[in-house]
Amino acid sequence: MRKSKRILVVDDEARFRRMLSKILESCGYEVTMAADGVEALSHFDKKPFPLVFTAIELPDMSGIELLEVLKKQHFECEIIVMNSYACLDRAIAAMRAGAYDCLIKPFKDTEVICNTAHQAIEKVRLQVQNQNLIEALKQHNKALEAANTRLKSMATHDSLTGLYNHRHFQDSLNAEINRARRYLKAFSLLFIDLDDFKIYNDSNGHLDGDMLLKQLSALFTTSFRKTDIVARYGGDEFVVILPETNKDQATKISEKFQQQVMDYPFAKCDTMPNHCISVSIGSATYPENGATANELLHYADQFLYKCKQNKNAGRQGPVRSARKRARGLAGTNG
Question: Which H/E stretch holds residue 30?
């Protein structure tokens, strides 16, 4: 509150400065005096004042010029100009420049001085209060926007992996079917399963299992296009929607991603069969493998099941290289 009680008095007449200062001090204000505009600005540089009384006639600059400089640098400051004689033009010029009031000196009624100061200070207080409320409202709105963004993300993204969740995938799949039907476009769907995830969990613990899923999700993000929809379907199963992608293209994409997974330096791979992390992928292409979401998912799921069977059967015979095994699992759907 002490800051709002500070007033700067600017006048080149020493006697008048002291007289005005005593009047304001008797009203409870802390007064600083300046003989010209340069000295006044010097005081402001050290510590701004909420209220200034300034004479219009100053030796180095006019009071209106001082007013304009102060308003430009400290718009919240209120300034009362004082003139030695009644001049309507000067009063109008001062008010247009942003003066709070224009007084004629010498003052016949000293009570007017204190009343004017009180009103100007109260205006400053209300302006500061209003500005604080506006800033608080802005901060509140930012916090609310951030909270809404988090809620929106929670509604569409998986909490562990950061990928899209099952619900968003279903919505996206239906939207892609409608788009493909309307524009007569093909698209493909990949159903991806992390091989032997139970073995990894049992050997290393669920915390390491969660870390493996996070690392795999990061690999999804960097391996697929921005236009592709990658989602966690559930557990260690993932799905990818590939817009405007035919069967042959989907097969190549599957092979490439399987190889990227096997080449990636996942931690604790020595606990896994063949000492590497791998995935099995089943694919379906619209419209040849299905015209609805259920039909496409069923086709991709059945293809994934066959891939798993081939992989398990392959372990019982001669062990093939990782690259050959990946290509065998990413074959076409017939």
Answer: strand 30-34
List % helix, strand, coil for the chain (3-state, nearest 5).
55, 15, 25
Distance of CA 213 to the CA centre of its chain: 27
Helical spans, DSSP H, in 36-165: 37-46, 63-73, 88-96, 110-156
- Are the C-beta atoms of residues 180 and 286 closer than 8 Å to each other? yes
| Angle, CA of 307, 290 and 256, to the nearest 5° | 40
- Which of the two residues, 81 and 88, has the higher pLDDT score? 81
pLDDT at position 325: 33
Confidence band, pLDDT 50/70/90 cuts, at residue 314:
low
CA distance 192 to 152: 26
CA dihedral of 100, 106, 111, 116, whole degrees rounded to 10: 0
Residue type at 198? K
CA-to-CA distance for 5 and 181, rounded, in angstroms? 73
Q: Tell me: pLDDT of 160 over 50.
A: yes
Give the mean pLDDT of the chain. 88
